[in-house]
């Protein structure tokens, strides 16, 4: 499914739309299956509505947030990316490498302790190893 993106004055993100895997559930309704790299306010597991356009689904609206949170990390030190990714996965997070080098999208499922994940990322950020964005934080993780 295609999600529109709003670019900032500097042209970020470098795309005007993002394709995200969505599993159809009913006519015009689907479940987000992948971790968004640029879309804000949507996480894996969310239910969304869409409309068909030119043979593909185009996002309409978020119907139901399902408790996952989405973080995006950008690494300044390549050697740390593998280690941090492994630590996040050991905590129960899913990670996906992005279309931009050193960009990592992180899915934090509802059952994972967000404070522990956030603590890990904060420590690495304080060491100037990475920077991060909380693209979508669920009510459960607030």
From TrEMBL:
Domain of life: Bacteria
Protein name in the entry: DUF4265 domain-containing protein
